[in-house]
Amino acid sequence: MCGILAVLGCSDDSQAKRVRVLELSRRLKHRGPDWSGLYQHGDCYLAHQRLAIIDPASGDQPLFNEDKSIVVTVNGEIYNHEELRKKLAHHKFRTGSDCDVIAHLYEEYGEDFVDMLDGIFSFVLLDTRDNSFVVARDAIGVTSLYIGWGLDGSVWISSELKGLNDDCEHFESFPPGHLYSSKSGGFRRWYNPPWFSEAIPSVPYDPLVLRRAFENAVTKRLMTDVPFGVLLSGGLDSSLVASITARYLAGTKAAKQWGAQLHSFCVGLEGSPDLKAAKEVADYLGTVHHEFHFTVQDGIDAIEDVIYHIETYDVTTIRASTPMFLMSRKIKSLGVKMVISGEGSDEIFGGYLYFHKAPDKDEFHRETCRKIKALHQYDCLRANKATSAWGLEARVPFLDKEFINVAMSIDPEAKMIKKDEGRIEKWVLRRAFDDEEHPYLPKHILYRQKEQFSDGVGYSWIDGLKAHAARHVTDKMMFNASFIFPHNTPTTKEAYYYRMIFERFFPQNSARLTVPGGASVACSTAKAVEWDAAWKNNLDPSGRAALGVHLSAYDAETPLSNKPSKVIDSIPRMDFPGVAIQS
Predict the structure, then answer these.
(1) 260 pLDDT band (50/70/90 cuts)?
(2) Is residue 578 part of a domain?
(3) Beta bridge partner(s), residue 410
(4) CATH number of the domain within which 390 lies
(5) pTM of the model
(6) Of 429, 457, 485, which one is at a domain's C-terminal end?
(7) Residue 39 maps to which CATH number?
(8) Domain co-membership, 331 together with 387
């Protein structure tokens, strides 16, 4: 992922201001180590730190239209850029970059072109003819973006908090699926899919339609001019991504450039569930598999760097970001610049274990809608920033706009978890790829129980984090927590520990307001905690907090602060048609 920074209408066109913008842009250099660009038009500045994935030789930014009256700095990938170029045949393009279409689309369609883009993106477009500008973020918020306002009336845009937090009076997360127009002076939602209203859909489940939609989502993301691979945890989602990629890679432009054998990557503590399952899937698919190990102490040592880069104090996100952060560094050291990952499936299909307790199909569906809308604050933020910290790009096919429309139109009755009928979590996705004649995955992998990433890398990881926090946060500190941190008051020593680090890097009130709060069990929303009265006493984001569901669940009687380590020697498996056993 690239890094973008823009300062618009700051009433200061001095050299000192230009130097300050350059200085702030360098804070994003980890995101785009391949090239830096800065464009100034009066008191408007557009800066860019490039990670070159498409057209590395000539796609440097900012990008322009033919007469350079329209200027764009963009972070993202436009998967349908070749189709869009055909619609703009009378335009002359300066580069082969997929993002080069944006300035020309604006010329043709004005601000209404954004929904034509199929991809992930954050961009700032400056029309120098009238000094107006447009800012937009992709549908789900896969790319990170923030907006701030200065006392001088300026508007600031940055891919990360650290690009604007010291210079703005107020700043906030830029809402996904929205654009901000200087002409109207406000936000407008450009992404308006049918599911957004949370109305209950009724389209009958068709496994082949779902399968084709996801295969299309994966294959369009094979667009690359640089070496790439897949993140493979051995769970259902990443394994399906790897299987489809391996199946369709041959014959693509990427295969001609870099070879048809797929590289896969996994991280975990020695002997963790994910490492074992990932190795089995990699052997089955014939990938060149890279297994990275880390220790609990390695992860603890990286926590401060993780919080600085991920820019959150959310417990779940930090737990999962740390191994991903460590793995991304290793992947980049191998010369790989892009990976395909499995984020988003659990939100779309109700894959988190707490969905076992959904009271009915209506509430099941509404919870999936709530989860998708919040992804930019959690898994998208983690996947984007943990990889971008090392100049690596993550692509997430489950969050493809077309695929989401197909998956969220299914009657949620088909997604409901019904153990007596052999339907475990994400049954509709598993069934769609349960092909006896041309199997995508081994049956027991296809029906493996959900493991949250922070659990699957090794259960002692979370237990080690809790123990470390307990050594640094006293009972007295917790007693006074509501006075020190009145907003999103930490309720555990682990949360307090992360909050202290976050506040040191980002002390502004606006910064702490960018992080969500509220009760959660096994990654649920606060609303879903109401589904089971027992959860109110076990508010922990680990999947093991889903009492009575997870095969290695916490016991209900022991307080969370006293839970022992539970490192298991065998991975939880699901033998078809969905009866949970320990292998």
Answers:
(1) confident
(2) no
(3) 203
(4) 3.40.50.620
(5) 0.91
(6) 457
(7) 3.60.20.10
(8) yes
Q: What is the DSSP string of 114-132?
A: GGG--EEEEEEEEETTTTE
> How many Å apart are CA 568 and CA 46, to the nearest integer?
51
Total structural domains within the chain: 2
Which residues are catalytic, by number? Answer: 2
Binding site per annotation, positions for ATP: 231, 267, 341-342
pLDDT in tens, 294-346: 999 999 999 999 999 999 999 999 999 999 999 999 999 999 999 999 999 99
Provide the annotated binding site for L-glutamine. Answer: 98
Q: Give the angle 385-386-390 at the CA atoms, nearest 5°.
A: 95
Residue type, 523: C
Q: Please choose, from the candidates 71, 126, 127, the residue with its C-alpha nearest in 3D space to the C-alpha of residue 99.
A: 71
How far apart CA 178 and CA 195 sit, in angstroms, is 16
Q: Which residues contact 144 (CB under 8 A, 6 or more apart)?
A: 1, 122, 159, 160, 376, 380, 381, 384, 385, 388
Which among 306, 294, 422, 423 is positioned nearest to 364, based on CA atoms?
423
Model confidence band, residue 571 (pLDDT cutoffs 50, 70, 90):
very low
Q: Does 156 reside within a domain?
A: yes
Strand 70-78: give its sheet, edge to edge: 63-64, 70-78, 119-127, 132-137, 178-181, 186-189
Calculate mean pLDDT across residues 109-118: 96
Q: Which helix (H) or strand (E) holds 381?
A: helix 379-388
Token reading at 242? 């790897």
Domain boundary among 457, 492, 521: 457
H or E element, residue 444: helix 443-446
pLDDT digits (tens, 9 = 90+) for 441-488: 999 899 877 655 555 566 789 999 999 999 999 999 999 999 999 999
The CA angle 199-203-207, to the nearest 5 degrees, is 130
Domain housing 451: 195-457
- Same domain, yes or no: 203 and 136: no
| Size of the chain, expressed as the number of residues it contains | 583
Q: With residue 186 as reference, give the H or E element that holds it.
A: strand 186-189
Question: Does the residue 215 lie in any domain?
Answer: yes
Instruction: Name residue 473's amino acid.
Output: V
Please tell me the predicted confidence (pLDDT) of residue 556. 45
Q: Is the pLDDT of residue 505 over 90?
A: yes
- Residues 78 and 203 both lie in one domain: no
What are the CA-CA distances from residue 104 to residues 40, 63, 506 (Å)?
20, 10, 38
Query: What is the number of H-type helices and E-type strands within the chain?
Result: 21, 19
Assess if residue 149 is contained within a domain: yes
Collapsed DSSP state (helix, strand, coil) of residue 395 = strand
pLDDT at 566 over 60: no
Is 47 within 8 Å of 38 (Cβ atoms)?
Answer: yes
pLDDT digits (tens, 9 = 90+) for 344-353: 999 999 999 8
Q: How confident is the model over 25-67, as pLDDT tens digits?
A: 999 999 999 899 999 999 999 999 999 888 887 778 899 999 9
Residues 257 and 308 in one domain: yes
66 phi and psi, to 5 degrees? Answer: -60, -45
| Tokens, residue 317 | 């996100």
Judge if 257 and 134 occupy the same domain.
no
Say whether pLDDT at 553 is over 60: no
> Of 271, 328, 389, 319, which Cα lies nearest the Cα of 545?
319
Do strands 186-189 and 170-173 pair parallel, antiparallel, or not at all (unpaired)? unpaired
**How confident is residue 272, by pLDDT bands cut at 50, 70 and 90?**
confident
